[in-house]
Structures are given as C-alpha cells and as structure tokens.
Amino acid sequence: MDGERILARLRERFGPAVLEAGSPFGQSTAVVDRGVLREALDFCKVDPDLGFDMLVDLTAVDYLKFPGREDGPRFEVVYHLYSLPHNQRLRLKVRVEEEGAVVPSATPLWPIANWLEREVWDMFGIRFEGHPDLRRLLMYEEFEGHPLRKDYPIERRQPLIGPRN
Amino acid sequence: MAQTTTREIFLGEGSGTGGGGQNLHVNIGPQHPAMHGIIRILAELDGETVVKTDVEIGYLHRAFEKECEIGGYNNAIPYTDRLNYVSPLINNFGYAAAVEKLLGIEVTERCKYIRVVMSEISRICDHLTCIGASAMELGAITVFLYMIKAREFLWELVEDVTGARLTISYGRVGGVRADLPDGFAEKARKAFKETREVLDEVDRLLTGNRIFMDRMIGVGVLSAEESIAYGITGPLLRAAGVAYDVRKAHPYWVYDRVEFEVPTRPAGDNYARYLVRMAEMAQSMRIAEQALADMPGGAINVDFEGRPIDPASYVDRGKQGKTEGLLLVPVTLSPNLEGQNQRALERVLTHDKRVALPPKETTYGSIEGLMNHFMLIMEGYGIRPPAGEVYLPVEGANGELGFYVVSDGSDRPYRVHCRPPCLPPLAALPRMLEGGMVADVVPTFGSVNMIGGELDR
Hints:
The complex is a heterodimer. Chain A is α/β, with parallel strands linked by helices. Chain A has a single domain, classed as NADH:ubiquinone oxidoreductase Nqo5 subunit (Beta Polymerase, domain 2, 2-Layer Sandwich). Chain A contains three helices and seven strands. Chain A has a five-stranded mixed β-sheet with strand order 1-2-5-4-3. In chain A, strands 6-7 form a two-stranded parallel sheet. The longest helix of chain A is centred in the first third of the chain and has 12 residues, at 3-14. In chain A, 39% of the residues are buried. Chain B is mainly α. Among the domains of chain B are: 6-56, no CATH class; 68-297 and 420-456, Orthogonal Bundle (Cytochrome-c3 Hydrogenase, chain B). Chain B has helices at residues 6-11, 64-68, 77-81, 88-103, 109-137, 141-162, 184-207, 210-216, 224-229, 235-238, 246-249, 270-294, 311-319, 342-348, 360-365, 367-377, 423-427, 429-433, 441-447, 452-456; strands at 24-28, 40-46, 49-56, 171-172, 175-176, 388-396, 399-407, 413-419. In chain B, strands 1-2-3 form a three-stranded antiparallel β-sheet. In chain B, strands 6-7-8 form a three-stranded antiparallel β-sheet. A two-stranded antiparallel sheet of chain B has the order 4-5. The chains are: A alpha/beta, B mainly alpha. The A-B interface holds A 24-25, 27, 29, 53-57, 59, 61-62, 66-67, 78, 80, 84, 87, 89, 91, 110-112, 114-116, 123, 136-140, 147-148, 152, 154, 163, 165 and B 27, 40, 56-58, 61, 63, 65-67, 69-70, 101-102, 104, 228-231, 233, 242, 244, 249-250, 387-391, 393, 400, 402, 404, 406, 408-410, 414-415, 417, 419, 423-424, 426-428, 456-457.
C-alpha cells in the first residue's frame, strides 16, 4: 500500500474529519480533527492494510510566529508512525488552540507515548487527556513555563533546583 | 513501641512494626561510577529483587532544539555533534540530510560514499564503547582496554578526516567540510584489520565466558512485541528478532549499492544485544570497505601547472588584490582543514549556490565567489529552504535517528526536533529491570547504551 492509498483509506474512514491530506516532499501527511484523533491512531494501528505498529516519534510545533499562520490554531501535535510489515511511514497531525490545549493520550495504544507526551507537555504545555502520569520529562518540576514555545525568551534564566527526594 | 534499628530500616529485616516487609528505596545515580551517563533510577527493592523503578532523565538537557531555532541552518551542525557524542558523524549527516531533503538537493556521489564510510566508522566506535563499558562493569576490565584501543585506531581515522576527535562538525548542508586526506583508504583498511584482531580477541574472551554468559543470558529481556510497542529500534530491536534497519528499509546515500546483512537474535536479552553489536561491527567494516573500494573520484589529482601554493598564502594574496591568475593555480589540500583544494571541495560539496559556501580561494579570487559568499553569510540571507516540514530517519548507532525539520522559508529553521534513538529503550528500562535482581541493573543499563547527549538534548 503506497502513501496515496494510505491517505485515501484514512479519508474513506473519517471523511471530513481528515482536514488535510497530502504528500509534501514525498512524505504522507494527514491532519485530522482533534475529536477523531484517538480513533484515527487506533485505526492506523489495528487496520491490517495500514498496520502502523510503531509510534516512532511524537512532538509538537508552536506556530505562533509562523508567517501566515499567526491567527490559526497555535499548536500542532505531530505523530510519526511507521509500519514494520508494510515499510510505510505516515505523519499524523492534530491542530490545537492555545486555550484548552488538550489532546487525547496515545499511551493505551503505545507505551512509548507516555514519555513522548511528557516531553511535549514539558516543552509546549500541551496536556494529554488520560495520561497516567503527566510530569515534566526533561526539565525539573519547579521550572516555570514551557521552553519550546515561541514566546519563551531564549535568554531567560531560571534557578536550578535539585530533585526532591 | 518497638524500637526500629537502622539495620532493620535499611535491610528490610525484622518484622511487625519495624522495617520488616517494608521495601527499600534506592537511588541509583545520577552520579554513580557504574552509570556511564547521568540518569537517576529510583528503585524499590524487596530484598535484592527490583520491584518497581522510576527513571528520571534530563540532567544533560542543553536546549538543543531551542538553540537550533536562533541560527542559520548550518549553525546547528556543531550542536548535533553533541547529541550522540560517541558517533557524532552520524548526527551531522542525519541533520544535513534532513535539510537537504527540504531543499530538494542531491549531494555529490563522492560525498555519499564519504558519508557512508564515516557513518560506519562512527557506528563501530559506538558499539566498541558500549560493549567495552558494559563488560568493564561486569569486571572484564581487559575487554574495556582492548575496545578503547580499537576505538583509538578508528578515532585516528576520524581525526585525519575531520581534524577533531569528538566535536567534529564535519557534515555540512549539501556535503561535507573537506575531502578525505591522501592515503585514507589504505589507513582505513589497516585500522579495520587491527580492529578485527581486537574483536577476535574480545570474542574469545567474552562470548563463551561462563561468568559473562551467566550475567547476561536471560537478563533484561524485552520481547519483540514489547520492543515494537515501545518504539525501540536499532540493536535492541534486532536482538529481539526483528530485522528492522533504516539502511535496508529506506536506503539512503549508497546503502543500496553495498552488500551487508542485518544480524538478528531471537532472545531479546542482554547477551543477544552483545552478539548483535559484535556482528554489526563486522558488517559495518564490510560496508566501509566496499564503499572505500567503489568511491568515485579517487586520489586527489592536482594539475601541476605552475607552483602549488598553500591555501593560506593563496588567501593572503587574494586579500592583497593580487588575484591575477589565482583561479588557475592549483592548491594542495591541507589536512588541518585550513584551506581546501577547490576541485576537492567540488567533489564533496553540492554545486548548488543556494547552499554551498564557495572555497576561500574563490571568495578572495573572484567577484562571483565573493557575492556567493555574502549571500550565504549575511544576516537574513543564507540557506533558505521552502516552507514545509520533513522527517528524515537515518540508522544511528543506537537505532533510528530522525530529524524533523520545519521551515518557514526564512534562513533559520522554524523548528528542529531530534528523535533520539536511545529514548525509547530508556522509557522501557523499568520493564527490563522490574522483577530482576538489583545487580542486574548495571548490565541491563549498559546494554541499552544510553547516551546522555542525545537522550536529554
């Protein structure tokens, strides 16, 4: 199954909830509505034609200062899926507003989502609903703000506080 | 009320109101002689059995991704050196390849071969360090010394090519910094021969060693299903029997033109990981030797019409305006990267003027070269890929190393994200440790080959 057919299969299953689909730079990319994200990830994983059994990467992008997208939804959470049986890749994205930046957690589907979602929460302040333990991953608990947001100044310094025992 | 002795609290001895039945919490790390990386494992022990662990990372966080956003595309190259600092060349090339994909440029043939050779040398360095260190933690200090000796042979090659050992910054968007030095292929073959001898010795010392086997077999087991669910790639996944290798699945550069196998083992334990890494080193040498043999361009042939001038005086003359005939004079390649032979640079760097800095000789010798230089260096100019996003995986020493680069069309990356290959195994570390003995924490931790630089970014 090639990239076009993967996207067609997603469109066929979710209809208008697939907001955008295309293959820029030859990489299959689909933007889905937040409401169907959990279902879409589940579908990608269990559908035998898709078989995306590996969540390779999960990250986010802050589009606050992206030319032409300043007014749109601020964040995009990006899932990179890989299918071992079909040797295919898919990028699934979901757009999130700054207000109520919550995305359903993928931890029940892939345990690795646990840490990756913690990293996204840490760096971008996007919450994952249903996550068992949403702590910061790289920064310490006392750290204020979310450093990879575009409005977090790179010069800002915060005191380093050691771990609590 | 019964008095609880310190011994009861710490050893969990006694019963009733005392420390009996109470599990002991032990901090392993962040600073611990057996941890070759700064990480904290909070272990809950019942006697000597690990009941529960919590892994805490982030001690080496340096804001890699944020730093990448403030400079030009090539400015991120030195930061990528520091991701996996045992095999920095693969990081350099991986990042450069992602930006090249965004730009839609193809690197030169010779450059592809150089990248493959240098990546494989780095991979061997990484595996040598991993096996050496984990063997040392089990008491086999000889193996560590042998492995470091072998790594030295290879690092000398790296030093010859890049001028540095660790923070090499050799990759460039569009190519590499300089061509290979004279006689590199010969040197590399000799180094591989010596490395093979060392690996042979280590194989005889470790593979059938009773103590080593007892400590490694059946320890830290992770099944194929669990490895996949945890997104684990690289030697750990192959040690669980899944033959996934980015070099085979999505061949990049010239990996589809060389012959190699993807070694796998079914067991998924520490011993299988050791065997897979040993087999991979042999395969890496095989790849590097084929690539060296097939490399186009060959030795650097300088046309000696007139006296060769060393690059430094070439630049000096250019600065003084004595440019007459400069472009026609061949220069010798300086091994310390002070200057380059123009033709050699053309062989290893793309010809695309949007990306490649002209050789210093051209910058100082011609107006076109000077303009080209300014267009890449001036604030607001530089390398400007079209707006878009790209995720490009390469096979790092620990597994799939991916760079996700988002461009907004300006001269700075809008977002750079690195998919560190050793994060998934660390996330799965509790699964490997729980239920085992506390003494097995160290070999299992050694077998996942955690590299703080790429884990914490």
